[in-house]
Structures are given as C-alpha cells and as structure tokens.
Amino acid sequence: MKYHNAKIILPERLVEELQNYIQAGYIYVPAKAKHRRRWGELSGYREELTKRNKIIRISYHNGMTLEALAEKYHLSLYTIRKIIYQK
Known about the structure:
mainly alpha
C-alpha cells in the first residue's frame, strides 16, 4: 500500500473537510470493485501456490503418502488433506 500526502493530491476544501474527522492520521481508501485484486495476484504468490498444490495432488495420485508430502513441503497433514481433497 502506498501513502500519499493529502495536501498534494486533494483539493484544499476536501483536506479541510477531512480534518474535521481526523487529524494527522491515516485513512484507508479502498479500491473500486473493478480494480480490486485477489490476495497474491500482484506478487504472483497465488499462482505459485496453485502450481505447488497441483504438484502435490499429482504426487499423491502417483502413490506418494500424505506423511511424505507433509514432510517434503513442510506442511501439516491437515493442510495436505485440504489440498488433495479440494474441489
């Protein structure tokens, strides 16, 4: 998240109005729905996890045990089961 100085980017009357509600603090301005990105999309981490999970499912269907997968990927058995049985 990037911070901007309100005095630089907003009209003076809007800054004054905001000061009626908050002084020297931070305000979060959410993105419009059409501009929102899902978690991990910007960094590419979501795609990386999707690929990892696909490999885990393939490995399981090729005979690798839940315990071996948990150890290999440093995940709990519960997490491995969630990955394998997710739809």
